[in-house]
Amino acid sequence: MSNRVLLVAIMMLLWLRLSPAAELHDLRLSVEGVDLHATLVEPSTAVTLVILHTGSGPTDRNGNQPGMVNNSLLLLSDALAAANFAVLRYDKRGVGESQSSQAESDLRPSHYIEDLAAWVEWARSTDRFRAVVLLGHSEGAMFAKAATALARVDAVISLAGSGRPMAALLLEQTEGRRPGDIDRQFRHILAELEAGRMVDNVPPLLAALFRPSVQSYLIDWLAIDPAQLADQIDVPLLVVSGSTDLQVARADFDALASHASQSVWIEGMNHVLKKQSGPLGEQMASYLNPDMPLHEKLAPVLLDFLREVEKDRW
Which CATH number characterizes residue 33's domain? Predict the structure, then answer.
């Protein structure tokens, strides 16, 4: 097959994948001096917009991190757009194209929440959508729930989100990796931050997580109770998690599900929304494979919920 024929075939597949007649728009929104860059996929007859918020760390709008490309959120966007839902996914401040001169020590969870609310306000100002839905993945699920206090949305989707205070999650995620005295120091620093106190002397082995420049962020982050946020939401809330997620436990799903309009537990879905089981070593292939599809049960669950939301807005 010639390169030209191959290129045409690829373009046809992309067109079919984003039908009906979806348009791609590069967007930029300035929030408090930070330019946030986004991609809007807009089918020509879409009336509902889904705004995606990424997970923690340097995760970009496609769900990727440096050295860890899985395209989870890009694939999710494509699946929703193929079903005639508009999707906006963006690089959060300091990540990807949304570079910022803001010092790490000045960053707070509230910045991410306010940025998300600003995108909602932008969407409302266009008068192009009857409904706006927030979909947060991992840490982004917490921000999506919190943003409902700042902006008018029609529904929220929590995807692989924590349901318990963050201290419990940190302890679980680092279990078995805090040998000897490091465990004592870890628990001490965590307790101090939970109490709202900064810690000056952080051992080198814990500096990546507890370095002084991120402690103000962590103090605010540790004070957030995701289940309490879920309880305060007055719009439909869908909670979705997977049984092979190594970062979020069944206890998190249960804590959120008790406050949700709908909740779905997907057997065999991991944290990057792929069908994969086993320990981290066995799951890494799914974290590094951009061509591996999403779990086949995920999109139908999301689409059923979105269609119900859309029906309520007619």
Answer: 3.40.50.1820
- Strand order of the β-sheet with 86-90 is 23-31, 34-42, 86-90, 48-53, 131-137, 155-159, 237-242, 262-266
Q: Give the pTM.
A: 0.91
pLDDT in the model for residue 57: 92
Residue 131 falls inside a structural domain = yes
Note whether 182 and 206 are within 8 A (CB). yes
Tokens matching residue 71: 């395209």
Residue type, 58: P
d(CA 247, CA 155): 25
Q: 202 in a domain, yes or no?
A: yes
Work out how many domains the chain is built from and give that number: 2
Tens digit of each residue's pLDDT (9 = 90 or more) over 278-295: 888 899 999 999 999 999
Question: Residue 183's domain spans which residues?
Answer: 167-223
Show which of 206, 223, 240 is a domain's final residue: 223
